[in-house]
Amino acid sequence: MTPVAILVLSLSMSADAFAAAVGRGASHRPTAPAAIKAGLVFGIIEAITPLIGWSLGIAAAGYVEQVDHWIAFGLLALVGTNMIRQSRRVEAEGEEDLPRKTGPWVLIATAIGTSIDAAAVGVGLAFIGADILIIAASIGFTTFVLTTIGMLIGKAVGVRFGKMAELVAGIALIGLGLAILLEHLGYLGG
Length: 190
Known about the structure:
single chain, 190 residues, 81% helix, 0% strand
């Protein structure tokens, strides 16, 4: 993968964590150390999940070699479509006013919930032979930075900004999946 593709993937994989962090920051004003702690938790988990997916993908790669580019495209398109759907979700009346649960287990559960898509993407990356260590580190670092920023700016920018970031990221993932498919089919130089 090119550095630009890795950047797009990292930003896209970080978008749902960023949206969650903006929402959390909008509901209460966290301190800088609390925002950094949340960023670390999200970043570490977001870096681990594509490694898990990649490992599963490597185990299956020999069986699906002829259609691996279709699987990579399908997984990225599925994750991207889900991100777009989530970005369009309207909060139920009064839902945004509900008190938010806090604590380390809630933080970890939220981080895992926002990183499941990275595991699916990791499977697809195994099929195209991507350098998973560089990509996982990039995703983890980008998630750390964006989650920390999202927590700190949440009160100022509100939840809508996070939703917009998630929408753009979903579109970018679908585009990246399409680029992988077209490259493997010989329509793009690579």
